Amino acid sequence: MDELRLYTWIAVGGTFGLYFFIAWWARAGSTSEFYAAGGGITPLQNGMAIGADWMSAASFISMAGLIAFLGYGGSVFLMGWTGGYVLLAMCLAPYMRKHGKFTVPEFIGDRFYSRTARIVAVVCLIIASVTYIIGQMKGVGVAFSRFLEVSYDMGLYIGMFVVFVYATLGGMKGITYTQIAQYVVLITAYTIPAIFISLQLTGNPIPQLGLGSTLADGSGVYLLDKLDMVVSDLGFKEYTTSTLGGVEMFAYTMSLMIGTAGLPHVIMRFFTVPSVKAARQSAGYALVFIALLYTVAPAVGAMARFNLMNTIEPAAGQNLEYAERPQWFKDWEKTGLLKFEDKNGDGKVQYTADAEKNEMVKVDRDIMVLANPSIANLPNWVIALVAAGGLAAALSTAAGLLLAISSAVSHDLMKGVLMPDMSEKSELRASRIVMTISILFAGYLGLNPPGFAAGTVALAFGLAASSIFPALMMGIFSKKMNSTAAISGMCAGLGVTMLYVFQHKGIMFIPGTSFLGGMEPNWFLGISPNAFGSVGALVNFAVAFIVLKATGPAPSHIQDMVDNFRTPHGEVATAHDH
Amino acid sequence: METSYWQENLRLIFICLAIWFVVSFGFGLLLVEPLNAIRLGGYKLGFWFAQQGSIYTFVGLIFWYTHKMNQLDKKYNVEDQ
């Protein structure tokens, strides 16, 4: 255990040292560097940075665990969180880059020639980003307390300090170069254990191929077939066909796709490259880097489930003696994330879908990725690497979100609306102050997570999908779209989605205030609140086009502006001459 | 002239998004059951599209679109820089 702690301190300390060095080396001197890294990032660099920006503690720690227990149903996360990049590459990023502004609300304000539109966008951005950041802060606290045996609070303070140093000092420039380093750390930490486990189980070192291979035990049976058999024998749903329901999966996947495309902290990264061509290319590279993790995750999920089942019941009827349980089992029992209750008093572990007989009363899905290396008996340095990888995933996303929040407040609200005469120097100072306040606020929320934290991720994607994404799409693809119509659409989409989430999960998630109950029979067409963003988006589009019919097209200079950002060449106020 | 650049771009986007929809929502969700009757090694084909194939296709689509757009920018002489 001491060797493991030493390795973990070296891995975490080493990577943090690297982030500090980069922060000092890439500190920002102007607002253009602070908001958009001076527009000088190459597509390959930007692709990696987007990868780290996008892949959060949820992607790194939770996703494979979700897939392990949902099986085929988990596909919604795989397709949903990658498919959005196709939309970004073709429908949003190139034109928004051409327009050449710093923030998403600024684009919306310009296109819909309206301060109100800009403020609505700022509000959506802040709610979406703040709810998202709580999860990252919790991830930092959990990773520290699990791997380094410091308290959750102490872990959070260390995390806040690290982000504070490189994000306020370097702005987008510092964050970009740090994210590149963080991507390398997180992808290495994710794939190395996966390669080992795939090799052990199937003899194939490539997890994507291992998942489709036969088991290495000489039986000649395919891993997925065996897994299907094992889980259905115990009464669980068959792994490769267990669905969440047709309409639900469709709506959920769509919500995650368009929500991804509408998340401001991701879109902002496309403003850092020098050209429209580079914006398209960065989306391609970004998806390559993201796909590296996202195509390994289903293998990690299935193999972790397989190992778990196999440890508890190596052959039908031969259950694990509780007294002989492996070390990782004991370690996770201590955290309370794994719980055993010997219901029939036979001293053996029974794990079945039958709640009466099931003795594994708690198997937290988040432990699947973190426990995986120990379940597979991998060396300690691999486990240390996973700790550094989880922290890299959480910190890189937190930094991107903090930048989105601080730029929305300092650039859109203060400079854009309240104090247009602010000098560049004071704007830069304001951004740094706002960012510091945001870090403290995020830290406070991480220390006192509101009871509704788990439910709010649905809100973040729901908001992005139902308000920001449709507004951007209509702004680019409908030349005639006017400000009244766009604002009505945004408010309608937002309103319907929030109402639906609140009526099933409680107003502001306060228990007992959900007036229709969280019950499935009350779901509209069987669509869960998490998946409702796509319906909100439809409402947004419908309302906007109806209002457009009644109010007439946008003025001609706005239509000219649309023509301008649809073509890559030509004059425009670029991010660099601000 | 710029209108037809935009129209060609729209046509490309339409083709790409049609493929995007077919591999994910089509093969991965709506047609998953019939496709699962076909095997790709240890994978059922519908399951493979939902957890692997759609993602590979997305990557390919973006690079293909980028490549075609670079050609289109040249053809209409609207490259930036």
From TrEMBL, chain A:
Transmembrane region(s): 6-26, 76-95, 116-134, 154-171, 183-201, 249-271, 283-304, 381-409, 430-447, 453-477, 484-503, 523-548
PROSITE patterns in the cross-refs: NA_SOLUT_SYMP_3
Chief place where the protein resides: membrane
Gene3D superfamilies with a match to the protein in the record: Sodium/glucose cotransporter
Membrane topology: Multi-pass membrane protein
CDD domains listed in its UniProt record: SLC5sbd_u4
Any one cellular-component term (Gene Ontology): plasma membrane
Keyword Zinc: no
GO molecular function annotations of the record: symporter activity
Location(s), subcellular: Membrane
Record's keyword terms, sorted: Membrane, Symport, Transmembrane, Transmembrane helix, Transport
Family named by the database record: Belongs to the sodium:solute symporter (SSF) (TC 2.A.21) family.
Protein name: Cation acetate symporter
Organism: Thalassotalea algicola
